Amino acid sequence: MRDERLVRWRLVLGASARELDGRAGMTAEDLAADESLEWLYERGDELEERDIAPRGTGMGGANKLSVPEWLNRVHELFPRETIERLERDAVEKYQIHEVVTNPEVLKRIEPSETLLRAVLLTKHLMNPEVLAMARELVGKVIRKLMEKLARKIRYTFHGTRTRRRSRIRISKNFDAKATVRKNLGYFDKKKNRLMIREPLFLSRKRTQMEKWQLILLVDESGSMISSVIHTAVTAACLWGIPGLKTHLCIWDTQVVDLTDKTTDPVETLMKVQLGGGNDAPVALDYARQLIENPRRTIVAIISDFYEGATATGMISRVKSFVDQGTIVLGLCALDENAYPAYDKDVARALANVGAHVGAMTPGQLVNFIAEKLRA
């Protein structure tokens, strides 16, 4: 008889608990799930060893799992949340990049931000056919990220409701609580129903903004990959906001201005070359050329601040921006989690010369920008 609790423990503990197999009453499906987990996690230090034999054949058996076969099994045996975790571990923990460079695998894989990061890290390994499929995967993930942030931006920048009544009857301005209170006298006790005789609506105000510039400078080193993704999405969503002119630039030892590609974050990300050197002073010098009105400009430096010999130049340039009235943001992370890994000494020095330093989610950055524009 199958013991659900013991089966779960058996799958969690792996090969070290095989004596539980008989007691747990594991089915063929349970054993297949165990083999799939073993393929990924029971590999020790030999991370490049990707093929193992199904149980009972020995490590040298003929029936080995390829990456596509493993992925097919995973999709058949596990719930979606578990699939996403297994795919993430395969790519990020064990560096099994075939997950995103094999066309057969790409046809089955669930689009996710983890796989987007993997595509950006391995796109140089892809042939044209695989690259086209990977671009489609990137597009699906980006569209989801943009839809989520766009809702936040619409709410933040397109006005808030006031307590003034409005004769314009549109659903987004409907005042449900006030309407219920106003119409309580029309409650039908026999039908147990509230009759709405007078629906109430609120007016919506729009704050007039002066023209501002937002210059996003993104460090494209490999450690900043999540921030690169979310900066591209944020720039695309902010494009066209009344009163805001957005620029998007990436840098390593040189600067690439991607402002003309801002509305297409997929194209932006497929052009990013992750890794290489790091020269923030070059990026800041380029940003200076773009500034039209220093006191109406926000320069956001998205970086881990591991500058080495160029740190002094970075700090002095940030100080000169602050001295001329420019708002400088030093963002050591810009993604949904906002978990930073950065050079704390350089970050502290930037804060000491007047920069706002920290980690933000895209939504928090949107709020910060909106506050400055309305100040």
Describe this structure in words.
It is a single chain. The relative contact order is 0.08. Helix 14 (311-323) links the parallel strand 8 (297-302) and strand 9 (327-334). This protein is of the alpha/beta class and 375 residues long. The longest helix has 30 residues, at 128-157. The protein has 3 domains: 4-138, no CATH class; 160-205, no CATH class; 212-374, Rossmann fold (3-Layer(aba) Sandwich). Helix 3 crosses helix 4 and helix 11 (225-238) runs antiparallel to helix 12 (265-271). Helices cover 47% and strands 14% of the residues. The strands form 3 sheets. The chain has a 6-stranded mixed β-sheet. A two-stranded antiparallel ribbon has the order 1-4. It has 16 helices and 10 strands. The protein is flat.
Q: What order do the helices and strands follow?
A: HHHHHHHHHEHEEEEHEEHHEHEHEH
Note the total helix count: 16
Helix content: 40-55%
Q: How much strand content do the residues show?
A: 5-15%
- CATH second-level architecture of the largest domain: 3-Layer(aba) Sandwich
- The assigned structural class equals alpha/beta
Please describe the biggest sheet, giving its number of strands, its sense, and whether it closes into a barrel.
6 strands, mixed
Per CATH, the class of the largest domain reads Alpha Beta
**Averaging pLDDT over every residue, what do you get?**
81
| General shape | flat
Secondary structure: number of strands: 10
The N- and C-terminal alpha carbons lie at a distance of 69 Å
CATH superfamily of the largest domain: von Willebrand factor, type A domain
Oligomeric composition of the shown chains = single chain
Any low-confidence stretches, pLDDT <50, length ≥5? 45-63
In total, the number of domains comes to 3
What's the Cα radius of gyration? 27 Å
- The largest beta-sheet arranges its strands as 7-6-5-8-9-10
Q: Indicate the CATH topology of the largest domain.
A: Rossmann fold
